[in-house]
Amino acid sequence: MPAPGAAAPELRIARLRGHARRLFWSALVLIGVAGATGYFYDNLPAPYENWMLLTTAGALVLLLVVVPFLFWLSRTWTITTRRVIERSGPFGANRREISHVRGYAIQLRRGILQRMWGAGTLTLSNGVEPALRLKNVPHAVLVHETLVDQVEVNQILAHRDSQTFGSGSVGY
User: Which residues are bridge partners to 77 per DSSP?
Assistant: First the structure.
C-alpha cells in the first residue's frame, strides 16, 4: 500500500480475451479444408484445375478461419490497479474504461457451457455510464473476485487519502 497522499503506480493485473472455444468451428474448417485440398490436389476431374482448388481453399480459410480469428483477437479487456479498460475493433479503435474508485456493481452470469469451460459473462455497471460487458471471460470466478478486491482497495485508499492530515497522523 502506498503512503498516505502518495500516488500509487498503475499496475496491470490481467489482460483478457474472450474464451478461445469460440474458435472451435474455425479450427475444424481449417483441418477439413487442408485435408480436402491435400486429397483432391492432382485428382480433380477434367474441367477443373489445381489453381481453382487452391483459390477456393484460400477463400474458405480467409472467410471462415482468418476473419473470425481477427474478430476474436480484436477485443481485449485489461484490468489494472485503477481501472478496467475494454479495447475493441481493428487496432483498438474503440476504448471504454471504468474506474475502480467510483465503484460499480458486478454481475456474473454463467450458462451451462460456460460453467463447463470455466468461463462467464461479467457485467460492470456504475449506474451512470452504459454497462461494460466482458463476454465469455475465461476463469470468470477468479476475475470476479479480483474486481471485487480492486474496487474495495481503491475505495479504501480514496477514503484514506480524502481524510485531513494533521501533523502526520490521520484524524478520525
Answer: 16, 86
What is the length of the chain?
172
Per DSSP, the residues of 76-135 read EEEEESSEEEEEESGGG-EEEEEETTT--EEEEE--HHHHHHTEEEEEEE-SSSPPEEEE
Predicted TM-score of the model (pTM): 0.78
Can you give the pLDDT of all 172 residues of the chain as single tens digits? Answer: 666 666 678 899 999 999 998 899 999 999 999 999 999 999 888 888 999 999 999 999 999 999 999 999 999 999 999 999 999 988 768 999 999 988 899 999 999 999 999 999 999 999 888 999 999 999 999 999 999 999 998 888 887 877 755 445 554 4
Q: Any idea where the domains of the chain sit in the sequence?
A: 12-17+77-164, 21-72
Q: Which CATH class is domain 12-17+77-164?
A: mainly beta
